[in-house]
Amino acid sequence: MDLLENYKKAWGNQPEETNKLSALEIYKLAQSKSSSIVKWIFIIGILEFVVLNSLYFFVDMEEAYNEYKKIGLENFIHYSQVLAYVIIFYYLVLFYLNYQKISTSDSTRVLMKKIIKTRKTVRNYVLFNLSYMAITMIIVMVAEINLKIEELNTKQILLIILLTLVITIIGLGILWLFYQLLYGILLKKLNRNYKELAKLNNID
Amino acid sequence: MQKDLEDKFLSDFEKNQNIAHKICRIYTTNNDAHKDLFQEITIQLWKNYPKFRGDSKFSTWMYRVALNTAISLYRKSTRTVKTQDISDFAYKIKSTDYDDTEELQLKALYKAIHQLNDIDKALIFLYLEDKPYKEISETLGISSVNARVKMNRAKEKLKNILNP
Predict the structure, then answer these.
(1) Which residue spans traverse the membrane (chain A) (predicted)?
(2) Where are the domains of chain B?
(3) Per the structure, how many domains does chain A have?
């Protein structure tokens, strides 16, 4: 007989849990706060929307706008911000809808897929925000150079380009690493289990 | 949730709570973690109960939600170190009225299961609970064929740990 059959018998005969809960205890337990991964993704996702959007409060918008006007970018900034808000709103709705679809009554694989999809919505939002910042910075740089093109020599122009690129790459790189770390820690276990499950679905 | 639905849930869960305790035993190795996971399972069952339409048995649905919670929602890593002490879960097993050999087998079994990865734990658990392949594949969301293949591998791993 299979070795495991004996163990299976022992498993079947194992005594019931000694610390059983009463209906009232279960009720109380059910009212406590969840600390699940999904809840954390939701909280962090919302925080990202709030934090990234409130960055604008720390910038003197009027001064920035005057600067944009000076280099002739006020229209570009205006329209691109409108567009950015439309896209942010789209991501926020998508994020919420994906979050709502997560249900533990689904099969393990479907549930994991939905969690990963929700997390990817936030990742795409962050990527969009970072690229928006990078593009704006580069366009402002080009406009600044264009304005002072007669006063600057080639060496100075190259220096400005290099500096802007380095600052942009470092700044966005740090932010990106931070996100990778945050979600890496949060989703390490989930990703590992998903890979394990996906692996076994590709056996045929 | 409506009052009668709440009562129905509480009575169903109270009767079937041993399923959740067993899952906690295989996915955690100390009392605090057991309680922690049990709490999260309770919350998830409660939250999802209004969506449970009763097209399957309560216990079948409970296996799914509880395993999902342990595998995908529970934040702490359930992977355990290989030198884990047997006494960690011995407190849970009453030794009276229980055959000695079987008690030792059970302890060895839990110790071996703790060394498996989360997905293999689920497969072995469903095998030990005598679930048909159809239910196993539906719970995990993989095809029946894959469930069989993966189950055989998980069993092999378990056998190698139990009988090196």
Answers:
(1) 37-59, 79-99, 122-145, 157-179
(2) 3-162
(3) 1
